[in-house]
Amino acid sequence: MYRLLFIFYLLLVSSCGGKKESEPIGFNMDKTKEPLINVNKKIGKDEKRAIDAYVARRKWDMIETGTGVRYMIYEKGDGLMPKPDDLVMIDFEIQLLDGSVCYSSKETGSEQFMVEHDDVESGLHEAIQYLHEGDRAIIIIPSHRAFGLAGDNDKIPSFATLVYHIHLLKVIPKSKA
User: Fold this and answer.
1) The pLDDT of residue 25
2) 3-state secondary structure at position 107
3) What's the whole-model pTM score?
4) pLDDT for position 128
5) How much is the pLDDT for 15?
6) Domain spans of the chain, in order of start
7) Contact criterion met (CB below 8 Å) for 138 and 62
8) What is the fold of 62-176?
């Protein structure tokens, strides 16, 4: 028994051979943080240029928010403006900058969501609050306020800028929802 333990010990010691232990494999945030920030800045600048060109080609006079969401109301309504916790009902068409239609309420029917709560793009939650019930508008949502890197795993690819053609049909205030 002792012979076996001694042989095992010799094998163990000799297999190390005095080699220096290698560094553990892992993710070093210090080495990757700045390059990732730079890549994100470049992606953001490229996307902004693409949106600027898209808007300029169409000669749209859009308002840009601090987050990069843009909107243009082309038909005014005179109803309520949605606030957080209100329920809204919309008709919509979602396109990519190349004109591809991803989704449309013509196929799915009108949709509703609770402002600032439901699972829709954060850019839509933001933009809908600039509209009045009855407004028809075009909303451009940059990828970082839409589906970002992942896309929606269906019709919207990664890093996609979304163009919403939207009609705000109804605003139901929180107290009545």
Assistant:
1) 65
2) helix
3) 0.80
4) 98
5) 52
6) 62-176
7) yes
8) Chitinase A; domain 3 (3.10.50)
HSE-CB for 100 with a 13 A CA cutoff = 9
Cα separation, 113 vs 109, in Å, equals 13
| Residue 68 in tokens | 């990069």
Tokens, residue 141: 């949502």
Contact indicator for 144, 44 with CB cutoff of 8 Å: yes
What distance separates the 2 farthest-apart alpha carbons in the chain?
Answer: 93
Cβ contact 159:43 at 8 Å: yes
Quote the CA–CA distance of 75 and 166 in Å, as a whole number: 10
Closest CA to 134 of 95, 101, 100, 167: 167
The pLDDT value given to residue 166: 98
- If pLDDT is split at 50, 70 and 90, which confidence band does 160 have? very high
Cα–Cα distance between 164 and 156 in angstroms, integer?
Answer: 13
Query: Element (H or E) spanning 35, and its range?
Result: helix 29-58
Q: For residue 16, give the 3-state DSSP assignment.
A: helix
Question: 124 φ, ψ to 5°?
Answer: -70, -40
Q: pLDDT category, 10, cuts 50, 70, 90?
A: very low
Under 8 Å between Cβ of 137 and 122 = no
The predicted structure's pLDDT at residue 31: 76
Contact 82, 128 (CB under 8 A): yes
